[in-house]
Design brief:
Blueprint: H1 4-12, H2 21-32, H3 37-47, H4 51-60, E1 72-77, H5 80-84, H6 87-98, E2 111-116, E3 128-130, E4 133-135, H7 140-150
Parallel strand pairs: 1-2
Antiparallel strand pairs: 1-3, 3-4
């Protein structure tokens, strides 16, 4: 169940402004760690925007999720520079350690794992980003240390 008052508070911060839907959805994502269906209904009702438009935006942007995600987001860069330096092994080890596949979330909702294209840190590859923390030159041994920091 979503906190209706919190959703209304976020909407109120944008009242009377144009072109705010993307930022409002990002704020909902930040607040709830995903965008709940109930929040979309409230936004639709309050802003008189069709739900289909909200879903279209929320499903387009990678920064938004329509499904519950873990407290910590782990992204493994699969860009070319990271690939040639062992990114696939890092991704496989991370998934094995967490017992999930890319695109999944651990049962305890602690971690979500994603494979992403280039993160722009080619000289540091392979790269893992946990939440907003970048970890470069990741080795097999480094995977466990990184996960333990957030566990």
């Amino acid at each position: 169940m979503v906190d209706r008052e919190k959703v209304l508070e976020i909407i109120e911060g944008y009242r009377g402004q144009d072109g705010i839907l993307i930022q409002l959805l990002l704020d909902l994502q930040a607040e709830f760690n995903w965008i709940p269906r109930e929040a979309i209904s409230i936004v639709s009702e309050q802003l008189r925007v069709p739900k289909s438009q909200i879903y279209r935006i929320a499903s387009f942007y990678k920064a938004m999720s329509l499904c519950p995600v873990g407290r910590h987001s782990i992204q493994v860069c699969m860009g070319t520079a990271c690939q040639v330096r062992g990114a696939q092994k890092v991704l496989d080890l991370t998934g094995s350690r967490l017992m999930i596949k890319p695109g999944e979330t651990t049962h305890d909702m602690s971690f979500s794992l994603r494979r992403v294209n280039c993160l722009g840190c080619c000289a540091m590859g392979p790269v893992i980003v946990v939440d907003k923390d970048y970890h470069g030159n990741v080795t097999a041994e480094g995977v466990d240390r990184i996960i333990e920091r957030y566990d």
